[in-house]
Design a protein that fits this description.
With 243 residues, the protein is mostly helical. It has one domain. β1 and β2 form a beta hairpin. α2 packs antiparallel against α13 and α4 runs antiparallel to α10. The longest helix has 41 residues. The chain is elongated, with a radius of gyration of 31 Å.
């Protein structure tokens, strides 16, 4: 995913789409509540500083509250013994696990990508050594009793290079020869079912880490920008009201 940011972005959008929309819409709900208080204070004081101060409060608090409501509380709680409340992301646990497993199976841990990683990844030398060993054994078995004569006639070094060349060709055609078995391999590996099962077994704190890093790094910027924009809008309101 680090090498393909498009997949990472789609994963975050698919898994946390509702939470992202909640942050976008939260300003309307929380801003309305704080705005009513702001209107009352303005009506009583007509103090020009009221608007930018309340605007900053709205901008800072709405994004902060929205982020907290997404992830907390991690466990379901009862409010006044009547209402149940749980973080929006935690509440959608089963749905998120299904979406996450689907994206991972379809776009991240696909059979072609696994095959490519085996052939060219940082540990591909292990597979290459395995193929070379098996090719060497097969060639030796096929020659049978004639092997000493062949080695004598072509030379030990050339015989060794011959087997290495066969192994190299086998690795080169491996992706193409695997194509007919891709669908079966995907079903046999069961990546989606494995990911979904593993995610449902996570603790609430572990499950939170699936989406929280996407917000944590820049959430202070989101809150700060909201506060600055709120203050600017508040000052514009003062200019309109007193202009």
């Amino acid at each position: 995913m680090a090498s393909d940011r498009g997949v990472l972005n789609r994963l975050i959008r698919d898994v946390g789409g509702r939470e992202l929309r909640f942050i976008a819409h939260s300003g309307l709900y929380f801003g309305l509540i704080i705005g009513m208080l702001q209107a009352g204070v303005w009506a009583l004081t007509h103090e020009p500083l009221v608007m930018p101060i309340f605007g900053a409060i709205v901008g800072l608090s709405t994004d902060w509250i929205a982020l907290k409501m997404i992830f907390f509380p991690r466990e379901e709680r009862r409010i006044l013994g009547l209402f149940r409340w749980q973080g929006l992301f935690q509440k959608r646990r089963a749905e998120v696990a299904t979406d996450y497993g689907r994206v991972v199976a379809d776009e991240v841990l696909t059979v072609p990508k696994i095959m490519q990683a085996l052939l060219t990844g940082p540990r591909s030398d292990r597979l290459i050594a395995l193929v070379q060993r098996h090719v060497s054994d097969v060639v030796d078995r096929q020659l049978g009793p004639a092997r000493p004569l062949v080695r004598l006639s072509v030379g030990s070094e050339r015989y060794r290079r011959l087997k290495a060349d066969i192994a190299e060709r086998a690795l080169a055609v491996a992706p193409r020869t695997m194509e007919p078995a891709m669908a079966y391999a995907k079903e046999a590996l069961g990546i989606q079912a494995t990911v979904v099962s593993a995610m449902r077994a996570l603790t609430p704190l572990e499950f939170e880490s699936v989406l929280r890093p996407a917000f944590r790094q820049d959430e202070w910027k989101l809150i700060l920008v909201g506060g600055i924009l709120g203050a600017i809008v508040g000052e514009l309101q003062v200019l309109l009201l007193l202009g």
